[in-house]
Amino acid sequence: ATCDQNRERFGRYPCYTSCRLRAGEDSPYACNKRDHCHASTCANDTMYVERLMSTIENHVCLDLRRQYVTGMSVGGMMAYWLAAEFGDRFAAAIPVAGSALLGFWRDPRYPIPLMDIHGTEDDTVPANYSNGFVGNGPDAKPYPMVVPGCPECAFSNDGFYYTPNDNITRGVAGVNGCECARGDKKCHVLSWTTMYDGTKLSREAKWTCFQSFGSGGDYPVVRCTWKGKHFMPLHGPIETATVKEKKQFFPNVAWEFLSRFHIRKGSPKEAALLRRVPLPLLAVGSKVS
Q1: Going edge to edge, which strands form the sheet with 221-226?
Q2: Sorted alphabetically, which Pfam families does this protein's record hold (predicted)?
Q3: Are 196 and 274 found together in one domain?
Q4: Which domain range does residue 241 map to?
Q5: Do 162 and 254 sit in the same domain of this protein?
Q6: What is the C-alpha separation between 139 and 133, in angstroms, rounded?
Q7: Distant-in-sequence, close-in-space partners of 44: CB < 8 Å, separation ≥ 6
Q8: What's the whole-model pTM score?
């Protein structure tokens, strides 16, 4: 199961939210006529993105060694999925407030630098059990609700069950060769510096970035947290931040991270990329190092 079966508890979603292939309008799984399901469709998004990228790569002059993926909320979930599926095409990834529904995560096929950004008060897509939903009104509890059979998993405020982000990032760290990805090896948490460290804005938002699994060399796994709910970082009630500062924060942090990375010549990722993309296309506009 990927969500609480008692949908009446949450109100917003009148029926179960997992899409069933070719659900007809009269099917008990069809929530509406347009897309059949809330929070999902029967469309193959993976195939769509692959064809979209191939079309763009064949018609636009791109640096194919410097393509990146990011997204927020469901877009963050998609960013995680695409990083796992197309690690040979993306040089780095930044999921924001993203995760994977319980039972739907698999580790990337290729190493990929990752920065996971999550608000510590986000119970819409909670990062772990401690950030989970505590209930509403008389049903509220002093502790988060528990996912049946998975006490460390995250329970969201709309009843979905999420894989703990520690499990997801640990899986990526293992593929990336981070020295402490194995559970039997303990390492000191390493800090990760951003351009906002030490600023008043950073202090008020409690913005901090770190590497839980040691150094990944060319493929770090960075986790960033801030005092916020289900928003882009620093959006929401950060009193001292101007609208302009809030809008600039994520693009600045994201590009500072992403611009460090490219698919290196001679790497397994490049070999996989060459199998997908004709050599003349790869050479056009590409910087080789």
Answers
A1: 68-72, 92-96, 114-119, 221-226, 208-211, 190-191
A2: Peptidase_S9
A3: no
A4: 67-261
A5: yes
A6: 11
A7: none
A8: 0.85
The answer to whether residues 114 and 248 belong to one domain is yes
137 and 50 assigned to the same domain? no
- When divided into structural domains, the chain yields a total of 3
And the tokens for 252? 């600045």
**Token pair of 108, please?**
């990337």
pLDDT in tens, 220-263: 999 999 999 999 998 876 777 788 888 899 999 999 999 999 99
Among 176, 163, 91, 168, smallest CA distance to 132 is for 163
How far apart CA 268 and CA 114 sit, in angstroms, is 18
* Bridge partner list, 226: 119
SS3 150: strand
**Do 60 and 134 have their domain in common?**
no
pLDDT digits (tens, 9 = 90+) for 63-105: 889 999 999 999 999 999 999 999 999 999 999 999 998 888 9
Residue of 98, 104, 147 whose CA lies nearest to 124: 98
Beta partners for 93? 69, 114
91 and 207 both lie in a single domain: yes
Q: In terms of domains, do 96 and 182 share one?
A: yes
DSSP 162: E
Q: How confident is the model at residue 115 (pLDDT cuts 50, 70, 90)?
A: very high
- Are 134 and 184 within one domain? yes
Q: What is the spatial distance between Cα 165 and Cα 221, in angstroms, rounded to a whole number?
A: 12
